[in-house]
């Protein structure tokens, strides 16, 4: 990148010249000009933080002025906090030795998508639906599909809404009698530990279903169904969630 | 040397500087952190780091144990004299011994310098460095640059690579005659100090035979820990391939070749399978089928294999007369943000990992990417119909591109699973994420490395994957375990590249300490150490027959290694910049390499491997005289306009796909 676009070295402030010199000494010849700005910013921010910390330590020790010990302590604390470095080699060798002693676990056949326990996956819905005050005539089959983890934006279009365009969030309840199965042969139903089982779903309980299908399996159609049953007390939940009416609509409009 | 990564608060600075070559990018931050020029901040740091008579800083127990390896050895002021004396002796030695003894210069220089620094003789250290750093070999320049900024004891504490260097013994391979000469000289009384240092920090691997020439030595040295001891490369490695399972192929197409089930009479005339060995004898070099547990073959996998075999029959036979066609996928408007690329085995999808922490998947066939319908729609479809697998896919949202959000840092590595159901991506945020390619959502985040993860790859059979990162270890994971199954520790600096062997029993890792190691998945042992590169390794490729490994690094050379014997068998010179992509053709006849110098080069792999002389001496000592035949082996150089090549892939029919991001200058 051209350096002529930024302040030429002659008229750059002294600090910027020093940064450019550091880069040159380290053998870095190609860099965007804004790197120097970022380095300066970092240097100033770091030093300011250290000095502020040192002032705090010094006043804590009831000293009249900040001295080298305070600064040293401030640096040490910041290093442990922000600038951690990877574990030392002997520690790594030690844990490696421990880990490598256990034999490789056998692989269970026919276990569908091989994922860790649900707790460690990002497949659970990260929101709850609140139930309606008034009873909703559930349209069979119209169930909400949760967005999966916060960061993963599904590229599906807006999922079928909950049947009513009202401002109140509607939780549609659909009883899931038997889990969906194509050949009826094999299916896995996984239910998060804290919730009720599928069979005991009541019509007013909002259900949320998460369906992951592995269609490339031929012959044995495995379906993983995660059912999250939320039993809610409308009364207790309505109040804290009331203020979220407007926000919930946003999900549908994404 | 190595990549020092500093956590928050400057992720943004880090991402900006991805334009700088990776190996140097964060060295400057090390310096910014621990060493600010006195012009900028006069009083604070001078006083802080002035050690003279100040209060001693409390060392953590393990660090001080490590650093105490540097006990005072003699008078610091005399270090220059010791070194000069040794230098004089070596320069006056016989020609045949001089090359070998010159290997001593670098490790001794570094260790003596670090000792001076640790014992807080800053001025002596600086003058020692000034005087002798110019004498070192050119390929150590990067290390020396980092060393030049380590002037105080505190600087050494945060630098893990430096600490590892000090605690590990630098390995030198010297012939017996040269060693005797050296020993005799150093055991004289006035050279006692150097002898102590040599004994403490160097490991001299003695071999019987002719001393090596400078050229031979230069080919093998360069790594941070010297060369590899011969014992390190003696373990038996099962480099053979696993037997292909028998699959019954429906012989309904004419001219079709398929593998028969043995012993079963077929209605149609049985056709011989031409690829894959039909012998019932176990290949002695192949690992037993059950050495490591592998997932069973599902029906879809069997179908995939049948497709593979069908395509293999239409495969073009490559060779010096028949070079592959190259199809280049250029990423436009990436603004230097493209950091990782992968292509599925059947070449139907391409994934790009970007510095803005997104992962983008494209379909390169006319068939668009479809995700599974929502649960609401799924309950509406007829489950008994024959084409239910098409019906569960959502046509409304089919598109050529799907973007996956989830990482919070640049994505440095991506890998498709062999069954095309999953995608892995690893990032600077320290996690490896598993994405489903049916729902295009993230399934799992594997946390283990707490530092940037530089590379990840699925095993050729699926289920296992390996990742390597800044914490200097590589980890083996299984998709259904949230913790790693194996930890491969031993590298002195970041693990920059990780690859599975075709039989999934071994993992090769390339590192910023300029070595390549081969690890056994079964027990985590390091079975091979390959030294010879002069820069961090950025690409690895196993040959399809599993016998050879090709490695590419920032020095622009591609080195070829025989895994069974543990020897370097080839050196391909030609590239002028980092080699970021290496791939063997499907039958191993051609090696393609792609580099930052905007070229793709094709090399004749058959010729390299056929003239191997492996007599006893070579196997015993590991010394090979490599002919300078890079020009003969080069079959073609293909230049792009201004696009560094970061990924190469041979389709099943031996068409070469290359990809990179257009970066105009």
UniProtKB/TrEMBL annotation, chain A:
CDD domains (alphabetical): HFD_TAF9
GO biological process, one term: mRNA transcription by RNA polymerase II
A Pfam match: TFIID-31kDa
Cell division is among the record's keywords: no
Coiled coil location: none
Keyword tags: Nucleus, Transcription, Transcription regulation
GO annotation, cellular component aspect: MLL1 complex; pre-snoRNP complex; SAGA complex; transcription factor TFIID complex; transcription factor TFTC complex
Superkingdom field: Eukaryota
InterPro entries: Histone-fold, TFIID-31, TFIID_subunit_9
Region (Disordered): 235-254
Record-linked Gene3D superfamilies: Histone, subunit A
Subcellular location: Nucleus
An MF annotation (GO) of this entry: transcription coactivator activity
SUPFAM superfamilies reported for this sequence: Histone-fold
Family: Belongs to the TAF9 family.
Protein name as it appears in the record: TATA-box binding protein associated factor 9
Taxonomy of the source species: Eukaryota, Metazoa, Chordata, Craniata, Vertebrata
UniProtKB/TrEMBL annotation, chain B:
Highest taxon of the lineage: Eukaryota
TM region positions: none
Family recorded in the similarity comment: Belongs to the WD repeat TAF5 family.
Positions in coiled-coil regions: none
Location relative to the cell: Nucleus
GO molecular function: RNA polymerase II general transcription initiation factor activity
Protein name, UniProt field: Transcription initiation factor TFIID subunit 5
Protein keywords: Nucleus, Repeat, Transcription, Transcription regulation, WD repeat
Gene3D superfamilies reported in the protein's UniProt record: TFIID subunit TAF5, NTD2 domain, YVTN repeat-like/Quinoprotein amine dehydrogenase
Function per UniProt: The TFIID basal transcription factor complex plays a major role in the initiation of RNA polymerase II (Pol II)-dependent transcription. TFIID recognizes and binds promoters with or without a TATA box via its subunit TBP, a TATA-box-binding protein, and promotes assembly of the pre-initiation complex (PIC). The TFIID complex consists of TBP and TBP-associated factors (TAFs), including TAF1, TAF2, TAF3, TAF4, TAF5, TAF6, TAF7, TAF8, TAF9, TAF10, TAF11, TAF12 and TAF13. The TFIID complex structure can be divided into 3 modules TFIID-A, TFIID-B, and TFIID-C.
Main location class: nucleus
One Gene Ontology term, aspect cellular component: transcription factor TFIID complex
Compositional bias per record (Acidic residues), positions renumbered to this chain: 249-260
């Amino acid at each position: 990148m051209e350096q002529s676009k930024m302040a030429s070295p002659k008229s750059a402030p002294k600090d910027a010249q020093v940064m450019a010199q550091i880069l040159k000494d380290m053998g870095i010849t190609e860099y965007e000009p804004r790197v120097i700005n970022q380095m300066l910013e970092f240097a100033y921010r770091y030093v300011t933080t250290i000095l502020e910390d040192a002032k705090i330590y010094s006043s804590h020790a009831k000293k009249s002025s900040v001295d080298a010990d305070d600064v040293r302590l401030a640096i040490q604390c910041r290093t442990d906090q922000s600038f951690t470095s990877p574990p030392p080699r002997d520690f790594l060798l030690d844990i490696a030795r421990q880990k490598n002693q256990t034999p490789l676990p056998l692989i269970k056949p026919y276990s569908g998508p091989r994922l860790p326990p649900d707790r460690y996956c990002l497949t659970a819905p990260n929101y709850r639906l609140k139930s309606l005050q008034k009873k909703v005539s559930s349209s069979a089959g119209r169930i909400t599909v949760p967005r999966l983890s916060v960061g993963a934006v599904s590229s599906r279009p807006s999922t079928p809404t909950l049947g009513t365009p009202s401002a109140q969030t509607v939780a549609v309840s659909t009883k899931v009698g038997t889990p969906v199965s194509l050949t009826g042969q094999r299916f896995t139903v996984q239910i998060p530990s804290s919730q009720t089982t599928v069979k005991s779903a009541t019509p007013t309980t909002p259900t949320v279903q998460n369906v992951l299908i592995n269609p490339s399996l031929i012959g044995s159609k495995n379906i993983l169904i995660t059912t999250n049953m939320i039993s809610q007390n409308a009364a207790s939940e309505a109040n804290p969630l009331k203020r979220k009416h407007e926000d919930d609509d946003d999900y549908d409009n994404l | 040397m190595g990549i020092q990564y500093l956590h928050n608060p400057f992720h943004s600075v880090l991402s900006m500087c991805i334009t700088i070559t990776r190996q140097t990018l964060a060295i400057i931050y090390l310096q910014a952190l621990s060493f600010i020029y006195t012009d900028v901040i006069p009083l604070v740091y001078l006083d802080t780091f002035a050690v003279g008579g100040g209060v001693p800083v409390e060392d953590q127990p393990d660090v001080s144990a490590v650093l105490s390896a540097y006990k005072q050895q003699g008078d610091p002021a005399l270090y220059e004299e010791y070194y000069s004396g040794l230098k004089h002796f070596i320069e006056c030695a016989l020609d045949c011994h001089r090359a070998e003894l010159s290997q001593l210069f670098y490790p001794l220089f570094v260790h003596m310098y670090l000792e001076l620094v640790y014992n807080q003789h800053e001025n002596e250290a600086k003058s020692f460095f000034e005087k002798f750093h110019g004498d070192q070999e050119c390929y150590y320049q990067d290390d020396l640059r980092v060393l030049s900024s380590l002037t105080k004891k505190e600087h050494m504490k945060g630098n893990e690579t430096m600490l590892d260097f000090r605690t590990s013994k630098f390995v030198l391979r010297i012939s017996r005659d040269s060693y005797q000469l050296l020993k005799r000289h150093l055991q004289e009384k006035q050279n006692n100090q150097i002898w102590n240092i040599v004994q403490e920090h160097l490991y001299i691997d003695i071999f019987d035979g002719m001393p090596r020439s400078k050229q031979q030595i230069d080919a093998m040295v360069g790594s941070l820990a010297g060369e590899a001891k011969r014992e390190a490369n003696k373990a038996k490695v099962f480099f053979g391939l696993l037997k292909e399972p028998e699959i019954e192929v429906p012989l309904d197409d004419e001219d079709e070749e398929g593998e028969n089930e043995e012993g079963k009479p077929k209605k149609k005339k049985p056709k011989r399978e031409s690829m894959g060995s039909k012998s019932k004898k176990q290949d002695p070099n192949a690992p037993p089928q059950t050495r490591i547990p592998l997932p069973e073959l599902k029906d879809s996998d069997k179908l995939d294999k049948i497709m593979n075999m069908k395509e293999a029959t239409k495969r073009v036979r490559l060779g010096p007369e028949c070079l592959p066609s190259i199809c280049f996928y250029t990423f436009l408007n990436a603004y230097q943000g493209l950091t990782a690329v992968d292509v599925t085995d059947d070449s139907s999808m391409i994934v790009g990992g970007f510095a803005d922490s997104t992962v983008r998947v494209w379909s390169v066939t006319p068939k668009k990417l479809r995700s599974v319908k929502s649960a609401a729609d799924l309950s509406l479809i007829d489950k008994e119909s024959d084409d239910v697998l098409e019906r569960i896919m959502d046509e409304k949202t089919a598109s050529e591109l799907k973007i996956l959000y989830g990482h919070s840092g640049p994505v440095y590595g991506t890998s498709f699973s062999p069954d095309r159901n999953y995608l892995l991506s690893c990032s600077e945020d320290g996690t490896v994420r598993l994405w489903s390619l049916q729902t295009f959502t993230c399934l799992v985040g594997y946390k283990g490395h707490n530092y940037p993860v530089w590379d990840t790859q699925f095993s050729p059979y699926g289920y296992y994957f390996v990742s390597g990162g800044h914490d200097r270890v590589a980890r083996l994971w299984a998709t259904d375990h949230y913790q790693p199954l194996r930890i491969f520790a031993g590298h002195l600096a970041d693990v920059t590249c990780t690859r599975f062997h075709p039989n999934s029993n071994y993992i090769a890792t390339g590192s910023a300490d300029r070595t390549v190691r081969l690890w056994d998945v079964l027990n985590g042992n390091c079975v091979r150490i390959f030294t010879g590169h002069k820069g961090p390794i950025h690409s690895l490729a196993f040959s399809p027959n599993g016998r050879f490994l090709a490695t590419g690094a920032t020095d622009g050379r591609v080195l070829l290694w025989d895994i069974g014997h543990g020897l370097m068998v080839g050196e391909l010179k030609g590239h002028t910049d980092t080699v970021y992509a290496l791939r063997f053709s499907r039958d191993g006849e051609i090696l393609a390499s792609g580099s930052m110098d905007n070229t793709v080069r094709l090399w004749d792999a058959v010729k390299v491997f056929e003239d191997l002389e492996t007599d006893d001496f070579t196997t015993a000592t590991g010394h090979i005289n490599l002919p300078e035949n890079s020009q003969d082996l080069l079959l073609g150089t293909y230049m792009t306009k201004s696009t560094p090549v970061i990924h190469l892939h041979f389709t099943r029919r031996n068409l070469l796909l290359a990809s990179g991001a257009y970066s105009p200058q």
